[in-house]
From TrEMBL:
<dbReference type="InterPro" id="IPR036969">
    <property type="entry name" value="Citrate_synthase_sf"/>
</dbReference>
<dbReference type="InterPro" id="IPR024176">
    <property type="entry name" value="Citrate_synthase_bac-typ"/>
</dbReference>
<feature type="active site">
    <location>
        <position position="374"/>
    </location>
</feature>
<dbReference type="GO" id="GO:0005737">
    <property type="term" value="C:cytoplasm"/>
</dbReference>
<dbReference type="InterPro" id="IPR016143">
    <property type="entry name" value="Citrate_synth-like_sm_a-sub"/>
</dbReference>
<dbReference type="GO" id="GO:0036440">
    <property type="term" value="F:citrate synthase activity"/>
</dbReference>
<dbReference type="Pfam" id="PF00285">
    <property type="entry name" value="Citrate_synt"/>
</dbReference>
<protein>
    <recommendedName>
        <fullName>Citrate synthase</fullName>
    </recommendedName>
</protein>
<dbReference type="GO" id="GO:0006099">
    <property type="term" value="P:tricarboxylic acid cycle"/>
</dbReference>
<dbReference type="InterPro" id="IPR002020">
    <property type="entry name" value="Citrate_synthase"/>
</dbReference>
<keyword id="KW-0816">Tricarboxylic acid cycle</keyword>
<dbReference type="InterPro" id="IPR010953">
    <property type="entry name" value="Citrate_synthase_typ-I"/>
</dbReference>
<comment type="pathway">
    <text>Carbohydrate metabolism; tricarboxylic acid cycle; isocitrate from oxaloacetate: step 1/2.</text>
</comment>
<comment type="similarity">
    <text>Belongs to the citrate synthase family.</text>
</comment>
<dbReference type="InterPro" id="IPR019810">
    <property type="entry name" value="Citrate_synthase_AS"/>
</dbReference>
<feature type="active site">
    <location>
        <position position="317"/>
    </location>
</feature>
<keyword id="KW-0808">Transferase</keyword>
Amino acid sequence: MTQTTPSFTPPQDEGAVKISYKGKSSTFPVLTGTSGNNVIDIRNLQKDLDLFTFDPGLGTTASCESKITFIDGDKGVLLYRGYPITQLAEHSSFPEVAYLLLYGNLPTRHEYKVFVDRLEEKSLLHEQIRNFFNGFRRDAHPMSILCGTVAGLSAFYPEGTDTSNEESRDIAAVHLIAKIPTIAAWAYKYSRGEPFVYPRADYSYSENFLNMLFARPDTPYQINPIFSKAMDRILILHADHEQNASTSTVRLTGSTGAHPFACIAAGIAALWGPAHGGANEAVLKMLHTIGSKENIPDYIAQVKDKNSDVRLMGFGHRVYKNFDPRAKIMKKTCDEVLNELGEQDPLLELAMELEKYALQDDYFVQRKLYPNVDFYSGIIFKAMGIPESMFTALFAVARTVGWVSQWKEAFNDPLRRIYRPRQLYTGPGERDLWPR
Ligand code: ACO
């Protein structure tokens, strides 16, 4: 198999920024990448001027150099290794995209077969892992089962601790991409009290996942090609998104040299939050709360009220300030799935009405708030029979590819060092503790 190890060339120098402070001045180079914003290289800021930068939420900080994913938030562009997400979603498959993200290039036919065979071979879980599930309550959230079980898997693969070895990092990456759908599907089966369904070699990645979720010993699951195509596309759309909260968590955890399975468990924990991967579940909850079209104005009024903490879920994005290219593909996929089912979902109608209303409202227009990928994904999942509690787990299945690709890339970065952000301390100055 050809593995394109990213070769790090220093970005070009594009001028400099001079900063003067307290009678001293220093010049900081401006670096340019292939696309996107240039960055000021402030690595010498403390040494030269005894200053740190202040950037809560790291919204204007490039925390690393990467060759994997590019986003232009203003133009609504998302590229994986240079390929537009729209083209990949239309013409590629999830394992092919996984290969692309991991190794830098699309696979040849032979490389694809080898990769898919590896994924298939590693998709089984050690039988002892079945016992993990019994430790959870039946009503445990699938994300807590996923997070705990993936962290626990590290005990079964001690070789993953040898992160200095490229081959062992690659094995860990393939294990994770292969096993996480099995764990996620079993978390669902466990919540229903149904027997676990094992992966099958004759099914594609997406077919397998659907089969593990829905097949039962008494009723084999009939794979609907529209559903498996939709699942594949959803996985592609969610596979990577550069340095988002969960990916940064994985990179940060990885920077300590932690076991790869523990790093991915940390990513799963970060993804779980409603401001990140939990949003698609939150969209459906919101639609249930709104209930019907007549209640939209009241709900929007609450969203706009600065004294309430209600947000329009599935709207807004830290990076996309025009449109989310994934949302467009998702809307099309949503139509295909609902057409296949031949039913009009009242929740989808409500979502469409809500979207129309918000897009015409000054509050959302002025703040450049548009539907994000999560606005539609929940509706598709619901139509396919996937319960709300599983939505974020599905996102984790997809994003595992991005996490492991970014985690691997970090090891080839000559600038790699442990993450250690600074702070602006505003607490009490030093004070003495008096005897009490
Ligand atoms: N509903 C109402 N107002 C919003 C929303 C929203 N969904 N999103 C942002 N705003 C408002 C903020 O209140 C703020 O208003 P102000 O300027 O009057 O104070 C302004 O828009 C800017 O908001 P920020 O919080 O600075 O935006 P940020 O980039 O930090 O947040 C986020 C992005 C977290 C995604 C936010 O838009 C949000 O909470 N959206 C809803 C949750 C969601 O859908 N998350 C999924 C993200 S996509 C993903 O993870 C795959």
